[in-house]
């Protein structure tokens, strides 16, 4: 039998390596930007067309390359940063593997112009699919300009796996933000299809964050700084009230390299305990400076994971530093142990205020054991009680209405009570409620009597289910009715969210929004869905929450675009727990709920309706 193992041709080996290094246009953007930083540039331009599929161009004013280096940089494992194995544990540059340029050249048409500061002319190199086409002298400015055209042109299967242009553009913006944030001293610019997305001057870190995410972030940031013998920590965290439903604004940098680390992320989240809900995530941009000998960056092809020599100590330092910053800026509650509050009036020489003891109100004439013959007496007593205690502003007025409703229900005979019950189903197999007396429990649940006992309905989950099914129909029929705003509102989004909103614009309009583009990263909201009513809705805030909720739904459940949009809209538009509802509102809510296709479950999969049978109630009373 003949030998079957043989060496792969360079072109095939390069394409295999490209599968690890260049997964999408954003991967190539990251590698080129990092190379420009390693070249010592202080001004970097990124130009993309067709979401990076047609063109990715990076222009820098770095040190440039000689004729030999320009050719060598496209060879596999050719690098200027590593000479021996020990160098892997002393890396302070962004790139070091020597695979990026060779991998990119294997799957694209590459043109590079480069010139060193001391040279009079530069070098032009053209490569297609790892094959050198041209190398010649050229007049060019100092630094390097690399153009990547027709990415994956010779691997059409890989190109078919790319997402839509807006999705790929968002990935490019993500990579651009990470690199720009890690190097605030470098000026960056980003142009997409001829439009300027970013122009970032050299600035301090806080200003760089504000320039990347928007002016409103200036008030959201809390500084963090800690110096220890293990690590030096600096950066910013976000105030709890500005936390979001998605993790998009969380950044760790180790020696200025962006990394993903669930363990360190847990340390930050623990510092926010009792300040945030479980489904909210804080903003943070944190930089860790550590001895390169105590970490290993050579554990992942994309260099986004790091191994630490003493990760438990780093965890503890990170957690305590974030916790201290939250306390120092009065974000977390504090207790003053130095002063007893009872002596505060004596210290300020003010006369103490009169202490008013708490009091309760009750109906002295109420007799629950009286028979029906004394009903008129009870009615008179209730009228007297309402007059004396219900309308005087003594805190009883909200409860007297409920007391009266329960009193009326209690007066009914068993036959009259059963006539008010909800029938189980109608002719279509759906629940068919009728108008009846309902009660709201703690402004969260609606209680209704049924033949077998009682029924509890979660009002927020019920309204979310109603709106979700309604918005799904609007998206399918493309007929969402709109209510025109008297004063159109403008909403300015981050470049990433703006690209997302543009890709969703047709579906957003189907929900009933009237929205149009208005300049750089700005939209004008001229109308909102009529389903939302007109109860003091903030159109700008609603739209921002819609985009944030859409990202959260896609991250959690991987739903299709329309379903995620409908869920986000329903969650942000539904009445919340704590909202007081009248009898007519509760009846309408129940009628609309039982008209839904799936009334029993919320859009999160939790129950909307719970029933408690008479048998179960009897057991509670040991009957």
From TrEMBL:
SMART domains: DNA_mis_repair, MutL_C. Belongs to the DNA mismatch repair MutL/HexB family. The gene is mutL. Residues 209-327 form the DNA mismatch repair protein S5 domain. The keyword Hydrolase applies. This is DNA mismatch repair protein MutL. This protein is involved in the repair of mismatches in DNA. It is required for dam-dependent methyl-directed DNA mismatch repair. May act as a 'molecular matchmaker', a protein that promotes the formation of a stable complex between two or more DNA-binding proteins in an ATP-dependent manner without itself being part of a final effector complex. Keywords: DNA damage, DNA repair, Endonuclease, Hydrolase, Nuclease. It comes from Pedobacter frigoris. GO terms for biological process: mismatch repair. It comes from the Bacteria. The keyword Flavoprotein does not apply. One of its GO terms (cellular component) is mismatch repair complex. HAMAP family: DNA_mis_repair. Residues 437-581 form the MutL C-terminal dimerisation domain. One of its GO terms (molecular function) is ATP hydrolysis activity.
């Amino acid at each position: 039998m003949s030998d079957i193992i043989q060496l792969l041709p360079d072109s095939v080996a390069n394409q295999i390596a490209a599968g690890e290094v260049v997964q999408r246009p954003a991967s190539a953007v990251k590698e080129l930007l990092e190379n420009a930083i390693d070249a010592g540039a202080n001004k970097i331009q990124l130009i993309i067309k067709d979401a990076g599929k047609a063109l990715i161009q990076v222009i820098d004013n770095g040190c440039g390359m000689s004729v030999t280096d320009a050719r060598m940089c496209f060879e596999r494992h050719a690098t200027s940063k590593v000479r021996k194995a020990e160098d892997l544990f002393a890396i302070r540059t962004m790139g070091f593997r020597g695979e990026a340029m060779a991998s990119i050249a294997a799957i694209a048409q590459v043109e590079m112009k480069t010139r060193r500061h001391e040279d009079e002319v530069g070098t032009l190199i053209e490569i297609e699919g790892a094959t050198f086409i041209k190398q010649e002298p050229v007049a060019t400015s100092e630094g390097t300009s690399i153009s990547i055209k027709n990415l994956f042109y010779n691997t059409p299967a890989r190109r078919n796996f790319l997402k839509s242009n807006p999705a790929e553009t968002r990935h490019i913006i993500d990579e651009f933000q990470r690199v720009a944030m890690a190097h605030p001293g470098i000026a960056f610019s980003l142009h997409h299809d001829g439009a300027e997305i970013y122009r970032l001057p050299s600035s301090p870190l806080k200003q760089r964050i504000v320039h990347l995410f928007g002016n409103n972030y200036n008030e959201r940031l809390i500084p963090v700084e800690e110096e220890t013998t293990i690590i030096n920590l600096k950066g910013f965290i976000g105030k709890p009230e500005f936390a979001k439903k998605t993790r998009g604004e969380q950044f760790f940098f180790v020696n200025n390299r962006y990394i993903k680390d669930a363990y360190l992320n847990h340390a930050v989240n623990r510092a926010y305990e009792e300040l945030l809900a479980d489904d909210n995530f804080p903003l943070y941009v944190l930089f860790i400076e550590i001895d390169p000998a105590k970490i290993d960056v050579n554990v992942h092809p994309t260099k986004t994971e790091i191994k630490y020599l003493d990760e438990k100590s780093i965890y503890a330092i990170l957690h305590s530093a974030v916790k201290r910053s939250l306390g120092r800026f009065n974000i977390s509650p504090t207790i003053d142990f130095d002063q007893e509050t009872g002596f505060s009036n004596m210290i300020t020489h003010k006369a103490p205020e009169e202490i008013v003891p708490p009091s309760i109100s009750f109906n002295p004439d109420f007799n629950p054991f009286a028979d029906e013959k004394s009903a008129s007496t009870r009615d008179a007593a209730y009228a007297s009680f309402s007059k004396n205690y219900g309308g005087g502003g003594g805190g009883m007025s909200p409860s007297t209405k409920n007391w009266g409703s329960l009193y009326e229900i209690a007066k009914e005979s068993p036959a009259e009570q059963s006539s008010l019950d909800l029938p189980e189903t109608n002719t279509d197999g759906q629940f068919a409620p009728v108008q009846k007396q309902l009660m709201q429990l703690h402004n969260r649940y609606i209680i209704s009597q049924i033949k077998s006992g009682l029924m509890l309905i979660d009002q927020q989950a019920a309204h979310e289910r109603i709106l979700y099914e309604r918005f799904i129909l609007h998206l399918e029929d493309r007929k969402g009715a709109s209510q025109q705003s008297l004063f159109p509102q403008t909403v300015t989004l981050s470049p990433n969210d703006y690209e997302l909103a543009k890709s969703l614009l047709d579906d957003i309009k189907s929900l009933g929004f009237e929205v149009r583009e208005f300049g750089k990263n700005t939209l004008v909201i001229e109308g909102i869905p009529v389903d939302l009513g007109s109860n003091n809705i903030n159109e700008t805030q609603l739209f921002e929450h819609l985009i944030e909720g859409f990202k959260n739904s896609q991250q959690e459940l991987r739903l299709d675009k329309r379903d995620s949009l409908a869920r986000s809209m329903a969650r942000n538009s539904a009445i919340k727990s704590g909202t007081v509802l009248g009898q007519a509102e509760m009846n309408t809510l129940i009628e609309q709920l039982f008209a839904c296709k799936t009334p029993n479950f919320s859009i999160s999969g939790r129950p909307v309706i719970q029933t408690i049978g008479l048998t179960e109630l009897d057991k509670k009373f040991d009957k």
